[in-house]
Amino acid sequence: MGKVLAIVSQKGGVGKTTTAVNLAAAFARRGMKTLLVDVDPQGSVRFGAGLRKDHPTYGFADYLSGERTLRDVLLPTTLPWLRVMLAGSVTDLADHTNYQEQIASGEQLPRMLAAAKERCDIVVVDTPPGLGPVTRRTLASADRVLIPLQAEPLALQTTPQILRGVQDIVTTHEHLVFDGILLTMYEAGNPACESTVQYIREKVPSHLMLDVVIPRSPALAEAFAAGQPAVVRSPADAASQAYVNLATKLAERAAG
Ligand SMILES: Nc1ncnc2c1ncn2[C@@H]1O[C@H](COP(=O)(O)OP(=O)(O)OP(=O)(O)O)[C@@H](O)[C@H]1O
Ligand SMILES: [Mg+2]
C-alpha cells in the first residue's frame, strides 16, 4: 500500500504546483508507481505535467459529476510510472462553489485517494491555496503533508501564520505525518533572501524544516511553459536536482 502526500499552503503562489509536479516526476523516475492528482480547481497541473500531446482535459471534477469513470480520468504521461488526474472541466468555470461543495459533502475524494494508494507507491496531491474545504478533505485522507514556503521578505510576516496552520493541521489530523516546510525560490547571494531564511530558521523549530532548499531557477517556469516537469526537461538544473534529492529523502522516509 502506498502513501498519499498532500502539498498544502495557506498562501498562494509559493510553489505548490511546481513542487507537486516535479516531486511526482522525480518519484516516477525512481521507478515508483506514482499518481499526481490535481484537486485545485485552478487546474494548473495540466500545463506542466508532461501529458502526451492532445491529451483530454477532463479530470476529477468530471468523475465527481458522474460524467466520466475513474479509469477515464487517469491520464498517461511521457514517464512510464507517472499517471495524472487533472482537475477537469471545473477549471473552465468562473465559479467553483459547486465543486467545493461536492467535495466537502461527498465521499468520492476519500474513496478515490484510498483506491489510488492501493494501486500506487505514492499519490501526490496538489491543493488550492488556503485551508478551505478541498484542502481539508484532502488532508483527512492524506498520510503525509509538505508545506512550501517562499523564501521572500514577506515570509517574515507570514511565518507565524504558517506555524499556526501547521499546528492546526497536525492537531486536527492525528494520523498525518508532517514532512516539513520546504523553502522555495531561494536566491543565494540576495541579502534580503538570505536574511529571510536566517529569520525563518531561527523562528521555526528545526524538526519542522526540510533541509533541502529549492533555489530560484528559470528552468522551472521554462519547463512548465514547455509542458514538462523540469526534472525531465532540465535534469542538470540545480532546482531539478534539489527536487530529485527531496524525492529521495521523502521516499526513504515513507518506506521506513
Ligand atoms: N524555484 C522556483 N524558481 C523560479 N520560479 C518558481 C520556482 N517555484 C515556482 N516558481 C514560479 O512561481 C510561480 C508560482 O508557482 P506555483 O504555481 O508552483 O505556485 P502555487 O503555490 O501552486 O500557486 P497557487 O497558489 O496559485 O496554486 C510560477 O510562475 C512558477 O513557475
Ligand atoms: Mg498551484
TrEMBL record:
This is ParA family protein. Residues 3-172 form the AAA domain. CDD domains: ParAB_family (cd02042). It comes from the Bacteria. It comes from Pseudogemmatithrix spongiicola. Gene3D superfamilies: P-loop containing nucleotide triphosphate hydrolases. Coiled coil: none annotated.
